From TrEMBL:
It comes from Lachnobacterium bovis. It comes from the Bacteria. The chain crosses the membrane at residues 6-31, 299-315. Keywords: Membrane, Transmembrane, Transmembrane helix. Residues 107-139 are annotated as: Disordered. Residues 107-125 have a biased composition (Basic and acidic residues). This is DUF2953 domain-containing protein.
Length: 332
């Protein structure tokens, strides 16, 4: 009976563990990754504020970020990860300010003992020098009186000889400097011409090799297929990740009607920006550049859909063959 009870207990444990594994895999693959971004932009009053949140796995894992403009060049930013109730900061302006203050304090503390040690050393050196100078001065007074007459006579003779020698040496130096200067100019001119020829040959050879490699890749038979395939998959990935709901408005001016019209035409290429809940108001009459906007974006996507897209690319033989060719051409 005891053996059967142990078997039952083990079977129950195995079933519970299998259920847990299935639950975790299904939740990781099928539970949506949700994100929400809110923001306000007012360039006239220097007011920019953006808040965002990304949640996953029943709100167990979440990422938060906050950006707010303090000055024209300074922003308060906070980015942190939250797992259950534990927070881990990736980036925070407060932490950076504290670190910089601590570094400044440490530098000041390190400077103070150095100054004290330097002052003590200087004081000791000055005291030793004063004692030595007092002893030597007494000896030098007696010796200097006897040597003055001898030195005066020697100085007169040496001055006459030095004048003759200096004239000869100066003439020799002038001729040697002129010859050295001419040799340097000749050497620099030759090196400049050789370097120019070598650099031009290297540049032409490098550009030619790169052009040949690009031409080989472009003329390959699998290039068109891989380009079309990857383009289709990238568009699908953008559709999956793009926000599903967009609310708000945007009013802007670039102080010139041509530029404002060009920017508005660029925004109309994307369906997200001209949705019913989001409105764009270009100002063609304003003389100053400004942006006034409020927006809220919500979106969600499943991790399984991205994995399926990547697996389709990975198991496509033509695409992987072409990527292998690119590597070989690049390394050649």
């Amino acid at each position: 009976m005891s053996f059967l009870l142990i078997l039952k207990f083990l079977l129950k444990l195995i079933i519970i563990l299998l259920c847990l594994v299935v639950f975790v895999t299904v939740s990781v693959l099928f539970y949506p990754i949700r994100y929400k971004i809110k923001g306000k932009v007012d360039t006239e009053n220097n007011n920019i504020c953006v808040d965002g949140k990304v949640t996953w796995l029943y709100h167990i894992v979440s990422v938060f970020f906050h950006v707010k403009e303090v000055d024209i060049k300074n922003f308060d930013t906070d980015v942190y990860l939250k797992i259950f109730f534990k927070k881990k900061y990736f980036f925070s302006t407060e932490d950076l300010e504290e670190k910089t203050e601590d570094l400044k304090e440490n530098k000041e503390v390190l400077k103070e003992p150095k100054e004290d040690s330097e002052n003590s050393k200087k004081f000791e050196e000055n005291s030793e020098e004063e004692i030595e100078s007092s002893v030597t001065t007494e000896k030098n007074v007696n010796d200097n009186e006897s040597l003055q007459y001898k030195t005066d006579v020697q100085n007169v003779n040496e001055a006459q000889n030095e004048k003759k020698v200096n004239l000869v040496t100066k003439v020799k130096k002038i001729f040697s400097n002129i010859l050295g200067f001419l040799k340097r100019i000749k050497y620099k001119f030759k090196s400049f011409i050789t370097n120019k020829k070598n650099s031009s040959n290297k540049n032409t050879s490098a550009v030619g090799k790169l052009y040949k490699k690009i031409k080989m890749i472009y003329n390959d038979s699998d290039f068109k297929y891989t380009y079309a395939f990857l383009k289709e998959k990238i568009i699908l990935l953008l559709k999956i990740i793009c926000p599903k709901k967009v609310k708000g408005f945007a009013e802007f001016s670039l102080a010139e009607p041509d530029k404002t019209a060009l920017v508005t035409s660029f925004f109309t290429l994307f369906p997200v920006f001209y949705a019913k809940s989001f409105h764009i108001y270009p100002d063609f009459n304003a003389e100053k550049k400004y942006v006034l906007a409020e927006f809220e974006m919500k979106g969600s996507f499943i991790l399984l859909s991205i994995i399926v897209l990547l697996l389709k690319v990975w198991f496509n033989k033509k695409v992987m063959k072409f990527l292998g060719k690119i590597r070989r051409v690049y390394n050649a």
